[in-house]
């Protein structure tokens, strides 16, 4: 394995840092890993005190970008790349992460992560933009495949082929979201385990785990619902194949009581075989 593709050691189970639950995150015993939305990290001035405290006590804080538009036909915005680089430096991050998706085209902002056609042209676009970002970033980058509510027609590659070619050509790590794997498989009517069996799992930098809900016949990756049992089963299946350095619970709204959040973390620990945080 190329050094720097992963966190480098076993960090166990963590949770995404959000201002609304910063107190809960700060009080978690044994926490070694968290993630913050990169665009929420100020480039200048003081960092949020809870983030500074986590960093200073040795918790790995990973900036997770949502607006680079690595899959766009246009080159990535240098200012956005610089902001991601600055966030990594200010947080002492071991790596950064972003999505294999596009969020803008022709000067218009979608306000949402949009899926790419699984074509060789799209692979070339992602590879070029990742290279542009890597040239400015002080740390390695991990790439996350998104949950998609539709597929483009006439795809040239399977999802596994598409992801593997991007990873091979960029040298990036893989941020594997098992909730996205479940959502895509359920909406396509296929077996999610089949994707796990065709991905280079040794490239996994860390893992997202999240909840979702069905609406009008489609499963939506909401990050506001409890993690369902099938997603926890995928966590177990993943860890039986290759143990990732860290797994992270994603919640982005409708935050439940602390006891419920803690129970979700314990369930992820049980599914992965990592010890419960104490």
TrEMBL record:
Sections of the chain in a coiled coil: none
Pfam name, any one: MbnB_TglH_ChrH
InterPro entries: MbnB/TglH/ChrH, Xyl_isomerase-like_sf
Protein name: Uncharacterized protein
Organism listed in the record: Phytohabitans aurantiacus
């Amino acid at each position: 394995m190329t050094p720097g593709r992963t966190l480098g050691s076993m960090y166990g189970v963590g949770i995404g840092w959000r201002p609304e639950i910063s107190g809960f995150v700060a009080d978690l015993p044994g926490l070694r890993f968290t993630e913050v939305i990169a665009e929420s990290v100020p480039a200048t001035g003081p960092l949020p005190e809870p983030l500074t405290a986590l960093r200073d006590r040795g918790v790995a804080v990973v900036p997770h970008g949502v607006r680079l538009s690595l899959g766009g036909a246009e080159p990535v915005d240098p200012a956005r790349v610089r902001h991601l680089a600055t966030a990594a430096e200010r947080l002492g991050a071991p790596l950064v992460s972003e999505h294999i998706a596009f969020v803008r085209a022709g000067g218009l902002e979608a306000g949402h992560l949009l899926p790419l056609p699984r074509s060789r042209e799209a692979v070339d676009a992602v590879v070029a933009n990742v290279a542009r970002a890597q040239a400015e970033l002080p740390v390695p980058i991990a790439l996350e495949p998104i949950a998609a509510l539709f597929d483009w027609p006439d795809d040239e590659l399977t999802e596994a082929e598409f992801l593997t070619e991007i990873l091979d050509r960029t040298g990036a790590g893989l941020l594997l979201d098992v909730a996205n794997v479940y959502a895509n498989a359920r909406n396509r009517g296929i077996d999610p385990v089949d994707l796990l069996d065709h991905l280079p799992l040794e490239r996994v930098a860390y893992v997202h785990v999240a909840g979702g809900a069905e609406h009008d016949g489609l499963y939506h990756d909401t990050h506001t619902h409890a993690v369902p049992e099938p997603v926890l089963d995928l966590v177990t299946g993943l860890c039986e194949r290759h143990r990732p350095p860290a797994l992270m619970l994603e919640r982005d709204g409708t935050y439940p009581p602390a006891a419920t959040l803690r129970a979700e973390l314990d369930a992820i620990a049980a599914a992965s075989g990592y010890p419960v945080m104490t």
